[in-house]
Amino acid sequence: MDDATPQFEDFDVYHAGVSGGKDSAALALWLRFESGLPLEKMDITFCDTGNEDPFTYAFLDLLREIIAPVRIDVIHPDKDFWELAYSRHSFPNRRARFCTQELKIIPTRSYVLALQQAGVNVLMMNGVRQAEGHSGNDRGEALEWEHDWDGFGAWIHRPILYKTIAWIWDIHKKYIPLERVIALIYADPTMDDDKKLHLATKVSEAGIPRNPLYDMGALRVGCFPCINSVKFEVRAMAKYRPERIDFIEKQEVTVGSANPFGYCNFFHLRSVPQQFRNKHISGITIRQKNYREYDVPTIRDVVNWSRTKRGGKQYDMDFDLPASTCDIGGMCE
Q1: What pLDDT digit, counting tens, does each position of 239-276 carry?
Q2: How does DSSP assign 175-219, residue by residue?
Q3: Which of 171, 206, 229 is the last residue of a domain?
Q4: Quick one: 224 and 247 in the same domain?
Q5: Which of 51, 120, 203, 272 could form a disulfide with 305 if both were Cys (CB 3.0 to 4.6 A apart)?
Q6: Whole-number pLDDT of residue 277
Q7: Sign of the alpha-carbon dihedral angle for 276, 279, 282, 287
Q8: Which domain holds residue 286?
Q9: Model confidence over 47-70: pLDDT tens digits?
Q10: Run of H or E residues at 299
């Protein structure tokens, strides 16, 4: 095949990845119900990072049921998020964001490459939208058709590239029953009944059958929490998922036990102001390099900071947050 834009019928398989987020869910719904493409050629996968919220798994199960007979198969990376952090002696951060690469991109590459080596001509379907482009990503420059996905010769097609957020929510409403999403909330195995009622009421009022994490206040749902979670996302997690805070607290010690400092903070050092950092790291020397002493924020510190107003000087008693419209895309949405 040359570099001219191909036709859909040129391909044996149309592969799409879903995360439980709005854009990839919309892509799966479009592919199943509105693309007009042969169902038997559709191949949808989910990369399980091991750092997903129960709502994401539940929503994907619902989506799997709705788009049947098209399947959503699970890809498991060699190591999950927590095993990867332990092996690297640290959590990912903005400068070393190895999580997306190791947990999503590389496993997906391997999956697609195996198909190609078996003689299958694969078209990669991607849920990126130009409307979510900003200075921190290249989605605003994305093309609808593009050849050679990261160097191994696949065509990539972005069928929802020019779609608006209104279209995203409309296709959710068109094919996913709202009452089924509300039922997911009441079936949650850990959330308190009063919080279930509160969240179900928010979902009902918003009227959008989506992953309930958005109505909890999440901007992104691929990994929860993400290492890039902002203030009100942490705040929402602490309110609705306090057991997650307990778990991360233990992981900070576990992952930290594998590095010379003896402790590793999940969120970046500069996530919170100095006055909210209560864990002191002693200076050490590694290979003739001296590391100064400094304070780091524990997950409890970050939660405490998340409950303050802008500037971190006053506590905000008005917790309830509007449902997010989300500005994240790509592999996490």
Answers
A1: 999 999 999 999 999 998 888 778 888 998 778 888 88
A2: HS-HHHHHHHHHT-SSS-HHHHHHHHHHHHHHT--S-THHHHT-S
A3: 229
A4: no
A5: 272
A6: 86
A7: negative
A8: 240-306
A9: 999 999 999 999 999 999 999 999
A10: helix 299-306
Helices (H), 103-257: 106-117, 165-175, 178-186, 193-206, 213-216, 231-240, 242-256
Half-sphere exposure at residue 104, Cβ-oriented, CA atoms within 13 angstroms = 18
Contact indicator for 212, 226 with CB cutoff of 8 Å? no
CA pseudo-torsion sign 321, 324, 329, 331: positive
The answer to whether residues 133 and 142 touch, using CB atoms and an 8 Å cutoff, is yes
- Count of residues in the chain: 333
The number of angstroms, rounded, from the C-alpha of 299 to the middle of its chain's C-alpha atoms is 19
What local confidence, expressed as pLDDT, does residue 11 receive?
96
- Helix then strand count (H, E) for the chain reads 12, 10
Nearest to 88 by CA among 248, 258, 251: 258
Q: Is 208 found in the same domain as 158?
A: yes
Residues 137 and 213 grouped into a single domain: yes
For helices 242-256 and 231-240, give the axis angle rounded to 10 degrees. Answer: 110
Query: Angle CA(305)–CA(306)–CA(307) in degrees, nearest 5?
Result: 90
pTM value?
A: 0.87
